[in-house]
Every structure is written in C-alpha cells, then in structure tokens.
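Researcher: Can you fold this with NDP in place?
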Amino acid sequence: MTIIDGKQIAKEIREELREAAEKAGITPGLCVILVGDDPASAVYVRNKARGCKDAGFYSRTLRLPAETTKEELLGIIAELNNDKEIHGILVQLPLPKHLDEAEILSAIDPDKDVDGFHVRNAGALMLGRPAPVACTPQGCIELLKRANVPLTGANAVVVGRSNIVGKPMALLLLQENCTVTVCHSRTKNLKEICREADILVAAIGKPRFITGDMIKPGAAVIDVGINRLDDGTLAGDVDYEAACEKAGWITPVPGGVGPMTIAMLLKNTFEAACRG
Ligand code: NDP
C-alpha cells in the first residue's frame, strides 16, 4: 500500500514553479481577499501567502472587515482586475451572509480567476477547453498521476457533488478517461457503489464517513475531507486506519490533498502570469 505524500509532492511542484518563473523572467502575483474573521479561513489565507513566498511569488493579502459592503468589495476587485502586479485574485470563501458569492466571484476577471470558480471557467472545464481549473480537484488528479495510479478505464466514484470539489472532480476524471459515478446524500446503495471503485474520492465533510467495508481491495482512495474534531485534531472523510488495510494507494489527512490545493493555486497563478 502506498501512502501518497501530498506534502512532498506539493513541495516539488513549488520548486518546479519557482524554477519555471525564474526561467520565464516573471514574478507571478496573487492577491487573496479575506472578508471577516472566520478562524479557519484565516489559516487557509496564511497558508496561501506562505505558499507564494516558498515559490518566490509576490503575494498580497487584503483583510477586510465583516461588514464590508458589496459595492466596496466589487470596487476592490475592479481595481485588482487592472493591477499589473496581480495575476491571480482569490476571494476566500465562505463570505459573510450579506454578500452573494456568485455575484462577487463573477466580478473577477476570468483570466485572473485562479480558483477556477468563475462561470466562464467552470463552463470551459465542462467543454474540455483550456482555462483555470478548480484547485482541489486539480490537485487530486495531480496526486493520482504522480503516484502512477492507472486512470484510463478505471471505475472512479466521487462522493460529493459541490461546485468546488465534487462536480469539477468528476469532470476531470472523465477527461482522464475514467468511468465516473457521482454520489451524494440521496444516493441509494452508496456502500455497494463505493465498493466497485478503483478510484474513490471522498469530498463529503463528515469525519471517517468512508469505512473499510466501502473500499475495494487495491483501490486508490483520495480523501478531500478536512474535519476538525472536538479534541482539536483533524480527520478526513475516510476512516484512515481501516482504509489502509484495503487500499492500494491512500492520501493522509493532513498532508494529502490540502497542500496540493495550494500548489495548484500557485500553478494557476503562474499560468495566469504567463498569459500576461
Ligand atoms: P459541501 O458541503 O459543499 O458538499 C458535501 C457533499 O457531500 C454534498 O454533495 C453532499 O450531498 C455530500 N454528502 C453529504 N452527506 C452525505 C452522505 N451521507 N452520503 C453521501 N454524500 C453526502 O462540501 P465541499 O465539497 O465544499 O467539501 C467537502 C469536504 O472537503 C469538506 O470536509 C471540506 O472541508 C473539504 N475540503 C477540502 C479542501 C482541501 O483543500 N483539502 C478544499 C475544499 C474542501 P448533497 O449535495 O446531496 O447535499
């Protein structure tokens, strides 16, 4: 059984990007906007800024009060859309309730939408056209490829159908010629479906939801979940110990998909900088 070391792979990607940026003579710039004081979001934003620093990128973090109005935020995004130092703009989600996420995200210049959430970029993924792709599912594919998991013809099951993970994940697996099944909270016979998966992606948000008896022997198990337990520790959506008994490959939490999300954000920022 192979434990896929996302932390190490993400480090390699940061190095590759640093070298590529140096070679191209560019300094990719990322601006992350954090509205409000959600503690988990603050950690994610810090990690993104650190990732930029590690790759030699320019990073700017705008911390705005929770009461920031729609007009103020749209004004800031409009300025960043025209800022030559900034190639990628990321609005950290979730936003405070009075701000409409879809409206805010669609104000970002699609070429600077390094999260891949803009409707143009989500549509491009659907059509198989080149565009920034959502970071977490892109990171999952990169992990599978770098671990040499066979993709063509594999039976892939994605549990979760969110716009930021489950749906783009399914489309990317389809692009890789997997046979894809998407499951969600209304799925019948979830256990049986999961048991057929050569590749099982868990993006549910429920700690240790995927139990050992849901895993096909030898399967590649990609655990996207990040769940904070009462004792302060983190758990994925997969029962890791039980899964290790069955899986052929597995990603740990932490140290699996999480670092790859940031690595793919840097990759999207680099590519945006290359486009100019
Ligand atoms: P959402 O809450 O948006 O989506 C969860 C999905 O899981 C939904 O589609 C839901 O189904 C499905 N689901 C919930 N309960 C069940 C169930 N009992 N059986 C089957 N499916 C179920 O979450 P996200 O997609 O945003 O995130 C998923 C997890 O990934 C979270 O733990 C999150 O923290 C983590 N995450 C990690 C990232 C990383 O960098 N590693 C990045 C982003 C997220 P339905 O649609 O029917 O409600």
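Model: Folded with NDP in place. Residues 136, 159-162, 164-166, 183-187, 190, 203-206, 224-227, 257-258, 261 surround NDP (CB under 6 Å).
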